[in-house]
Amino acid sequence: MHDQDATKCIAACTGLSGFVVAMLANMSVSNPIEVAVPRAIMAMVVCSVVGYVIGRISTGVISETIFKRAEQAKEASRLAAEQALAEVGQRAKEAQEEPASG
User: Which residue in 81, 102, 82 sits closest to 94, CA to CA?
Assistant: First the structure.
C-alpha cells in the first residue's frame, strides 16, 4: 500500500467513525433526523480532515523509520562483508605461510 493510499484509508475510517458516533449520540437523545444527519455529516467531515492529518504524519514517520532501518541494514551488511573478506584474506595469508615454514 502506498503512503497516499494509507492516508486516505485512515481519513475514511476516522470520518466514518465520526459519522457513526454522531448518529448514535443524536439518536440516544432522540433528536429528529433533520437535526441528526447534518450534525453527523459535519462530524464526518471534521473527523476525515483530522484523520487525513494523522495519516500523513503517521505514514511519514513510518516511511522515515523504514528508510533509516534500511540504511542501517545496508551499513551492517557492508561491515560484515568487509570483516568476512578480511578473515578470508588472513586465512589465505596463513595458508601461504604454512608450507613455506614447514
Answer: 102
Query: Tens digits of per-residue pLDDT, 48-95?
Result: 999 999 999 999 999 999 999 999 999 999 999 999 999 998 888 888
DSSP state of 58: H
Number of helices (H), then strands (E), belonging to the chain: the values are 2, 0
Cβ(7)–Cβ(51) under 8 Å? no
Report domain extents, the chain: 3-101
> pTM value?
0.69
Specify the residue for cell string 551499513: 75
For residue 35, how far is the Cα from the chain centroid?
39
